[in-house]
Hints:
The complex is a heterodimer of chains A (226) and B (208). With 226 residues, chain A is an alpha+beta fold. Chain A has helices at 5-49, 60-70, 150-158, 193-214, and strands at 71-78, 85-92, 100-110, 115-122, 129-136, 172-174, 185-187. In chain A, strands 1-2-3-4-5 form a 5-stranded antiparallel sheet, sandwiched between helices. In chain A, strand 1 (71-78) and strand 2 (85-92) form a beta hairpin. The N and C termini of chain A lie far apart (59 Å). Chain B is an all-alpha fold. Chain B has one domain (24-202). In chain B, helix 3 (39-63) packs antiparallel against helix 4 (72-94), helix 3 packs across helix 5 (96-107) and helix 6 runs antiparallel to helix 7 (128-158). The A-B interface holds A 2-3, 7-8, 11-12, 15-16, 19-20, 22-23, 26-27, 30, 33-34, 37-38, 41, 136, 140-143, 191 and B 37-38, 63, 66-71, 74-75, 78-79, 81-82, 85-86, 89, 92-93, 96-97, 100-101, 157-158, 177, 180-181.
Amino acid sequence: MTSKPWFIVAFMVGVALVFGSAVTGIYLGAADLLERNSEFLRQRALIAVFDYGDPERLDKAAVAALVRERVVAGEVRTDPQTGRQFSLLKAYEDAGRTTLRAYGVPFRGMGFWGPVQGILAVSPDLTRTLGLVILEQAETPGLGGRIEEPIFTEQFRAGIAIAPNPSGPVLRIAAPGSPNADGRHVDAISGATQTCLAMERLLNDHLESLHRAMAQPAQDPPTGRP
Amino acid sequence: MGFLDSPGGKALVLNLWRENPVFRQVIGICSTLAVTNLLKNTVLMCGALTFATALSCATISVLRAYTPKQVRMMVQVLIIAAYVIVAGFAMRAWFPEVHKLIGPYVGLIITNCILMGRCEAFAAKNPAWPSFLDGAGAGLGYSLVLIPIAVVREVMGFGTLFGLALPARELWWHQWTIMIMPTGAFFMLALIVWLCNHWVRRQGGTPA
Lengths: 226, 208
């Protein structure tokens, strides 16, 4: 019987239905947990990039409350030259949202091995960086992958000058000890030259675009989560 | 008859050493290169592969009498895929940060030769419990090779073990960058295969 065509088709359909339904059921059962995990990781990234505290020491409720109180999805700006849209985040000093602490600039582009996605925090006057968090990257672990580690990201918290620069790139990622009279230098990671070059290209591209976009009027802010 | 004399017990032990999938059969080694630079990632990958192999083998064994031979490999892939997806969900739920790093490789367990190999070679011809043990043995045999590779690579490449810094490492440890790269896994895998074959030859066996 097992070699009859109708049985073969019926068997395949049956197996596909049973296992497909089981996987779908498990996914639906776990969907809330997966979504909560994903949201928590994103909120922790916002806490880190806007320097609201050490996300490792805050519990889930505190992280969620801080983000809900102080971070809002700000305006949308469009670069007239490239058409790139920025959905900027606005991070405030206080729960009353009276003083703007930083803009969060989401960026995404190619690293050396794959896409790199993150958020760059910049001062409200767009003259210096205040933080950097990498949300997604596929660089070599231990080498290029260190772009998400403090050895690289803390330099952006210390403040890299990012005002428009008519005579060169907005910022430079180069060997430690390179000249830094203009405050635009970021120490590269040893052994990760190609990733650092890709990051330099990616950040400069977004920052130049951001400066052009911020010279344009704001569009309606998006609704939804920050 | 003791456990080790039962068909399942024999299959489990065979997969751990004499027919170890990595250093004897040299199959399923793609992920060896990708996931062994951190021990935590390796242990989770091994857990996912063992889970998927054991349960896929048991399920395929249960269905073997009804599975038409013309579509048996399609059925096997479908069943393997279901268990691998479930393992991926579990990792996303409980270890989201590790999943971010090795998620693509967990998905690729579906195409790992160890699973198809055990399903075809053993589960398609044997009862469920021995097949479960055979699959579990293949997963544990894979872990037996990957975990020592990961220990060496993490210690030499990062100066940590399970993410914890080695004691006083600033005094004695020097980074071996090559151990972080896939090249380091090639060297370590070759070294382990050579050591195991050397041991087998000394015992009077035939090397892989």
